[in-house]
Structure formats: structure tokens, C-alpha cells
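Preliminary data (for renewal application), LARABZUK complex.
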Amino acid sequence: MRPDIKICGLKTPEAVDRAVERGATHVGFIFFGKSPRNIEPDLAGVLADRVRGRAKIVAVTVDADNDDLDEIIALVRPDILQFHGAESPERVLTVKAVTGLPVMKAFSIREPDDLKRIEPYIGIADRFLFDAKPPVGSDLPGGNGVSFDWRVLRTLDPNVEYMLSGGLNRDNIADALRETGARGIDVSSGVESAPGVKDLDKMDEFFAAVERASVREPVSGSAQ
Ligand SMILES: O=C(O)c1ccccc1NCC(=O)[C@H](O)[C@H](O)COP(=O)(O)O
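Predicted structure:
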């Protein structure tokens, strides 16, 4: 089955349009000043309006305070909040209660023990996003274009809903899907020509690779 596909860090109408034309189920906008993908909420709102109703609008923040979240929600009207910082389960619960929006909570993963950190969020976060640990010296908690060892997810409860993220690209997405069976995938650097610059051809190639991988997918567990 084709996974949900989130294209993250969009900044231009061309990139937003292409992502959704090619079948992105989610489009992500980054609100983090140090990121080359940072976008002002008013521009993100304009871009979101181009595809509203055709793809889920995801607002990505890092330990954002209430004022920043209020502004983003008012101007972007996201369908989902992605928390990519150290937001506590209590913070996730409070934001969900106040805003009525679902929250996808990101975790950086390197080894099996890292998965234990999701436990307090089960039943609270609506979905998880598993990303790689940032390289030493990186200013960014995400969008670093590095992968983690997907075999770590072998021990994960199959009922846990997550998006696989971190260093995905046209060349490794088939292996990633085969190894994890992820029902959602997320990409940023892998469809860029430079940090923060989406490459429409790379985006096309990524979607084509996902299609090929989804067609080849074995029908394990099926009687037919
Ligand atoms: O992408 C960023 O610049 C970013 C900055 C701060 C917090 C989160 C960020 N990205 C979040 C995402 O969902 C990315 O798509 C994810 O980390 C994967 O990125 P990549 O490894 O570049 O595909």
C-alpha cells in the first residue's frame, strides 16, 4: 500500500503545487528561525491555501510558546501541529485541548532504547515522527538529511502510528519501506538541490521511487 507522503520545508508555490500534484498527502511548513526552510506564517498561510483540502497542512515548530503557536494557527490554519522539540506530554495535551488540533510528536532515534521515550506520549500524541539524531554541531533538530538504522524499529509495537523520516531520498526509500513497512514517510533534504531549495525534478523522482516500491511490496499475510 502506498504510504502517506509528507514533503516538508516548502517555501514556494511551485514546490507546494508540485508536491500535491504528485500525491503528497501532507505538506510541511517550518517555523524555526535557524532553519534554511524557515517561513513566515503569513506566507505559509498563502501557500497552504493553494492546497487546502487536498493535502494535510502541517505546521512544524520547536518548543514554540503560546504566542507563536497562536500566530501560526491563525495565519496558516494547519490541520496538524508537528512538535519537533522537547515538548512534554503535558504540553502536547494542553495544546491539543486548547487548539483542537492533532499533534505529531517527533523523536530522534539512534538505538532501540530511544523508542522508550515515546511511551509517555502514547495515547496523547496522535502520530509520531521518527527522525535521525542531528549530527554533532548541527543547529537543526530536523532537516539534516541523515538517516538512522531503520532496523531499530523492528521492536516497535505495530499499532504505533508514525512517519519515517531522516535522510530519505529516491535511492533509499524502497529499502526504507521494505525494512520498516512504514505507513507514512517524510522527506525534506532528499528533494532539495541546496538547503531550503526544493528541486522539482528530485521531488518527481522521489514520488516515482515510492510508486515503484509500493507496487513491488510483498503481500505478506495475504491469502492471495
Ligand atoms: O527541516 C528543517 O529545517 C527543520 C528544522 C527544525 C525542526 C524540524 C525540521 N524539519 C522537520 C521535518 O519534518 C523534516 O522533514 C525531517 O527532519 C527530515 O528531514 P530530512 O532528513 O532533511 O529529510
